[in-house]
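Record type: monomer structure entry
Structure origin: computed from sequence
Chain ID: A
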Amino acid sequence: MSLLVECSHTLSRRNGVSSLDYGDTAYSSTLPFSQRWAVLFRWTVNGLLMFTQFGCCCIYFVFIASHTTQILEACGVGIDSEDVNSLRVVIAVIVLPLTLLTFVRNLDVLSPLSGIANMSMAFSLLVIVYYSFAHLNLPKERCFGGPVDELPFVAPVLQWPLFFGKAVYSIEAIGAVLPLENKTKTPTDFTKVLVAGMAVITFLFVLVGVAGYACFGDHIKGSITLNLPTCGNSNWIYSVVKLYLIFTVVSSFALQFYVPIIILESFILAKIKLRWGDPPVVAKIPFLLRATAVVGTAALAAATPRIGLFISFVGAAGSSALGLIFPPVIYILTFHEQVSCRLRCTKTLCIIVALLGFVGFGFGTYASLAEIVKTFVANGNKTSSCQSSL
């Protein structure tokens, strides 16, 4: 991420502009070599940005629905949290409020919500870590992982690609980096904030991941919070945590939605104005696009309401390219004429990171797609057996 920010600053000064987004940074870095390849690079970056960010929105739909059904089931509403159709009903219900939230086009308006959401997330993480360490050595018949020393130290190799996708998705939010950097009062200090923030996020990622697996073992679900108990008077705190996290995800939905919808709006509005000028209906098109995009992401989430599979696929197919492959390539292209010792070392490191990103992209995408297909086939067979029994 810091490589991308550095390239954006350098190319902005070269082009005499105040800021560049991800697509424009990719375009400007490639333009001295070939305009055709520069245009293709920008299209590829923008396409993957939309795929990744809309994929995140799909994951948010599944996250909200999964935790809402668990809470409703604990309240005795008569909903089965493991039933796919129950998840789809909740997804359909939350489409309208999330659509209205995306109509807010000024991110500054959402800043108070983001601050409250961050505090809710911090409290939730504390509760999750406490619960995980407090239940490390429960017996297997309690549906936990069992004693820690019985868990495998290293997962099977075939599961590494799925882990790669989840890991890259969890710690990488490169689509929002440049838009946030462009909105800050002092963009020159953004790199320090970015590095510090990523260090904290990586630490929390490792802490929660290790503690969660040590507690739940192979019973761990796509989101660790789905393993927290909900039933019983003594477990009310965990229901509060789930409500806090639902609020956090809802508050973050508009931010994740901001990057792809701006790209889509700019492209479509430019085409309309080029052909028909500036008719009055143009003012309503952004709202129509946002509503259509939210409904579309909800439909995709309802098609595969398994949060773990969604995370692996989006992380491997989109986040790996945007976070591990493209930034090193852009850096090498941006500083291709400079041959200092520091830059040579950085370029060598960039090549290594890009190659690792290519490997993760290929194997991770294949593994996650294979699991998604397997899930569809299993659901289809289950539906067929139910119909035949009737």
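Annotation 1: The chain has twelve helices and no strands.
Annotation 2: The chain has a mean pLDDT of 81.
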